[in-house]
Specification:
Helices cover 40% and strands 18% of the residues. α7 runs antiparallel to α8. This is Thiamine kinase. Keywords: Kinase, Transferase. GO terms for molecular function: kinase activity.
Length: 273
């Protein structure tokens, strides 16, 4: 995120409130990736490292930070960093997490990270849905498509997306940290929905990293939700991604991957559910 603040640029009262939880911060290293936090850094203290992120409490991004804080208690510690504390002071909202070491996932064909990523995606699908507050991805998708010229396959996507499974919905490599296992970070966009949705999001990421659509779908078929999903649900979802992304993120590798996947799904001519 351009314009990200350094530790010393935060208001003094905010820094004091953070250090009430962490002890003295002796060093702060700003995160080099990400775009949703005005402040994001690894904080070094006498007790070790803490990852801290957040921004103005009245900013649009604050909603995402609150979403992440709300779902964190329901996430297994072996899957996602534990939220240690949050601070709301002087117009700022900051979250403090266990610091997770690891490299961003390599999703290219043949990568040794792929089995670890698959294990993590399976763990997301096992989280008890009734314990988490509900935010339906189908409703979000329907509202988003209402602002786009959605027709054909894309218009049918929301009705296939209803369900009670926890969905991360942003499984890009920057949100997957790999060491001995893969851990999933940045839960700002979590929703609840059909069990096939996260594996389907992963298909797009795999295609963007060099997999052919058929290869990516073969990888996703290890997940029961994806393998058992109606074919029309997957096709409608792929088409809806193109509809939503081609104007907002035109020309990006991810948008082009979604287009390739949608074209693969409809290669034998259009069939509408």
């Amino acid at each position: 995120m351009s314009g990200r603040l350094e530790w010393q640029e935060l208001p003094a009262g905010v820094r004091v409130a953070v250090q009430d939880h962490t002890g003295l911060v002796v060093k702060a290293e700003s995160a080099s990736v990400g775009r949703n936090s005005a402040f994001a850094a690894s904080l070094a203290t006498a007790d070790g490292l803490v990852f801290c992120k957040g921004g103005r409490a009245d900013s649009p991004q604050a909603v995402m930070h609150r979403n992440e804080a709300a779902v964190n208690p329901f996430l297994p510690e072996e899957l996602a960093p534990r939220l240690l504390w949050h601070v709301e002071r002087d117009g700022w909202l900051l979250l403090g997490f266990d610091h997770v070491s690891g490299q961003h996932a390599d999703l290219s064909p043949g990568s040794p990270d792929l089995p670890l990523v698959a294990d993590a995606v399976k763990e997301i699908g096992k989280i008890e849905p009734l314990r988490a507050p509900r935010r339906m991805i189908a409703d979000h998708w329907e509202a988003a498509l209402a602002d786009e010229p959605a027709d054909g396959w894309a218009a049918h996507a929301p009705r296939h997306m209803r369900g009670s499974t926890l969905v991360h919905s942003d499984l890009n490599p920057l949100n997957i940290l790999v060491a001995d296992t893969a851990r999933i970070v940045d839960w700002a966009w979590w929703r609840t929905g059909a069990a096939w949705i996260d594996p389907a999001f992963a298909v797009v990421r795999l295609v963007a990293e060099g997999h052919r659509p058929a290869q990516a779908e073969e990888w996703a078929a290890q997940f029961d939700g994806f393998r058992e999903a109606p074919a029309e649900a997957i096709t409608a979802f792929a088409a809806s991604l193109v509809c939503l992304w081609e104007r907002r993120f035109a020309g990006t590798a991810t948008t082009e991957a979604a287009r390739s996947w949608a074209e693969y799904r409809t290669a034998n001519g259009p069939r509408f559910p």
